[in-house]
Design brief:
Elements lengths: L1 E5 L4 E4 L7 E10 L2 E8 L1 E4 L7 E7 L5 E7 L6 E3 L8 E5 L1 H10 L4 E5 L2 E5 L2 E2 L4 E5 L3 E5 L8 E2 L2 E3 L6 E3 L2 E2 L2 E2 L2 E2 L3 E4 L2 E7 L2 E3 L23 E4 L2 E6 L2 E3 L6 E4 L2 E6 L2 E3 L16 E6 L2 E3 L5 E3 L4 H7 L3 E7 L2 E3 L3 E5 L7 E12 L3 E6 L9 E13 L3 E6 L11 H4 L12 E2 L1 E12 L2 E6 L6 E13 L20 E19 L6 E11 L1
Parallel strand pairs: 8-10, 9-11, 10-13, 11-14, 12-21, 13-22, 14-23, 21-24, 22-25, 23-26, 24-27, 25-28, 26-29, 28-30, 29-31, 30-33, 31-34, 32-35, 33-36, 34-36, 35-37, 36-38, 37-39, 38-40, 38-41, 39-42, 41-43, 42-44, 43-44, 44-45
Antiparallel strand pairs: 1-2, 2-5, 3-4, 3-6, 6-7, 15-20, 16-17, 18-19
Length: about 525
């Protein structure tokens, strides 16, 4: 066992490093000798602890197998209960002002407690050195009338190196956006914990109606962090967001632990977790089921990427479950600042259209370098296409233009992105349908090194036709092997495919093949 995080009132523990979202074996947990529950997950969290107290967690896997660890909770200055500030939590009265007053009144090192109840609220703005706890049975229910929401300007003139200050972001550009349910700007040392729910109630408003139309401003998120540092989000459930659920941007040293993210499968652009131009980020022990990509790692379109030159880097995603959603873990397509040093491991995916996915396109720019992306120990069940690397993703207004979609070798210039090393190791995919993997590089800038090692891909007995990659000229297919185009070096080591209809490998413009 290993401690991942401790606050004044909670703790997160890694129980099974070799498990996936679910541990290999169930465990009976005891805290200071008192029985808790039987835990089946690899990562678990404890709540309801007392500050500055020592605890011993005992984990039993049988009569003879026992592990223990001891930890001490943090100091806490005081607790501000939002009920004392007049919050009703009755599901009808608006509590925005009362909740915000409690947050603003809390001193550094204090806790704001939102106890059991249904709190109707507009966007709340957080501050530094704060613990916000949403207790079990507590729900923040977001207002549904967008006219009641503050707007975050995309760019504000400022005496900075770039000449402006970013606040609102929309799909990789600086655009005016509605504030999020929980908004943090230039914060440090913040903990958002608990077993409660943040409900965007987008299913009860008009957020999902004509979702690509800007009305007043672009749709907001459930959590938006801009230029924040040392933030932990633990235990909460986020559901029914107006657009993306969790969106940290230009932030660092972030932990997201044991959270749940939920949206209907057909809800528009409800990505689960989209870090943008962030570094040192952990997403551990989390379950996501949404209407778009479960996880999308980003760094802006070319204007943001070339101006701020801030990649998304040093990310760990582990012991997570990605259920449904168009993509399981995606890099891009807004990646003009670059994405590097990402490790996804010990995860489970079920029912996604595409499992592990890299998306870019011409005009993402020379700073748009994707490199050192490692997918390891990932199991998939019923995912249509396990692996996709697509350098001709047809997003944006010009996505279908001849320049973006040309298979001719165009000049390499300031607008040309790069895909470096992408590694898939110990990936097991069962009941696939479309193809084992689809890789489409740029003719003028091929994928530098694609590695598949110790992978097994099995196909469903009956497979439906589906387009494996979202690019023009990619045919519908079913039961195909590994399709690879425009790659400098392809390394295949111990790769097994069963149920393939036709050739195991379909290669075009692969300069070097290393197969074992």
């Amino acid at each position: 066992m290993k401690i991942l995080f401790v606050s004044s009132r909670s703790c997160t523990v890694l129980l099974d490093p070799e498990g996936e979202y679910l541990a290999r074996r169930k465990r009976r947990l005891f805290l200071n000798g008192e029985p808790l529950w039987k835990e089946e997950r690899s990562v678990t969290s404890l709540f309801g602890l007392e500050p500055e107290s020592e605890y011993t967690l005992e984990c039993r896997m049988g009569e003879e197998e026992t592990e223990t660890l001891t930890f001490r909770t943090d100091k806490e200055i005081c607790t501000m209960n939002v009920r004392d500030f007049g919050a009703k939590g009755d599901g009808e009265t608006e509590d925005t002002a009362m909740l915000q007053a409690a947050i603003l009144s809390c001193p550094a090192g204090g806790r704001v407690l939102i106890p059991e109840g249904n709190y109707v609220t507009g966007p709340l703005f957080l501050k530094s050195h704060l613990t916000l706890e949403l207790a079990k049975g507590a729900t923040l229910s977001l207002l549904t009338d967008r006219k009641r929401f503050p707007i975050l300007p995309g760019k504000t003139p400022a005496r900075t190196e770039q000449g402006n200050l970013l606040l609102g972001l929309w799909e990789g550009t600086a655009e005016d956006g509605f504030a999020s349910a929980l908004t943090g700007i230039d914060l440090e040392d913040v903990r958002i914990i608990g077993e409660g729910v943040v409900d965007g109630r987008a299913d009860q408003g008009d957020w999902w109606v004509n979702p690509k139309e800007r009305r007043g401003a672009w749709r907001g998120y459930l959590l938006h962090l801009m230029r924040c540092s040392r933030v932990t989000v633990q235990g909460l459930t986020f559901r029914n967001s107006p657009s993306w659920n969790l969106h940290p941007a230009f932030s660092d040293t972030l932990d997201f632990l044991n959270i749940h993210i939920q949206a209907p499968y057909h809800s528009p652009n409800t990505d689960g977790f989209d870090p943008e131009s962030c570094r040192d980020v952990r997403l551990l022990g989390t379950e996501i089921s949404v209407g778009d990509d479960c996880i999308a790692i980003k760094s802006g379109k070319i204007q943001l990427g070339s101006t701020y030159k801030t990649p998304c880097r040093n990310l760990e995603i582990a012991w997570c479950a990605m259920l449904d959603g168009h993509g399981g873990v995606t890099v891009g397509s807004e990646m003009a600042g670059g994405v590097r040093d990402v490790r996804v491991h010990h995860c489970y995916m079920r029912g996604n259209d595409r499992g592990l996915r890299v998306k870019t396109r011409r005009d993402r720019g020379k700073d748009g370098v994707i490199d050192r992306i490692f997918f390891e120990h990932v199991t998939m069940d019923g995912v249509r296409v396990p692996l996709v690397v697509n350098s001709m993703y047809f997003c944006d207004a010009d996505g279908h233009s001849p320049r973006v979609q040309s298979r001719e070798k165009l000049p390499v210039d300031e607008t040309t992105p790069t895909v470096g090393t992408i590694c898939f190791e110990q990936v097991t995919a069962m009941k696939c349908q479309t193809c084992a993997g689809y890789v489409l590089g740029l003719p003028e800038k091929p994928v530098e090194h694609l590695i598949l090692k110790d992978c097994r891909i099995d196909f469903a007995a009956e497979a439906e036709l589906f387009q494996p990659a979202m690019a023009d000229g990619v045919d519908l297919c079913a039961g195909r092997g590994l399709i690879v185009k425009f790659v400098r070096k392809l390394t295949l080591e111990n790769v097994a495919m069963t149920g393939v209809r036709g050739e195991r490998l379909d290669l075009e413009a692969v300069e070097e093949l290393e197969e074992g």
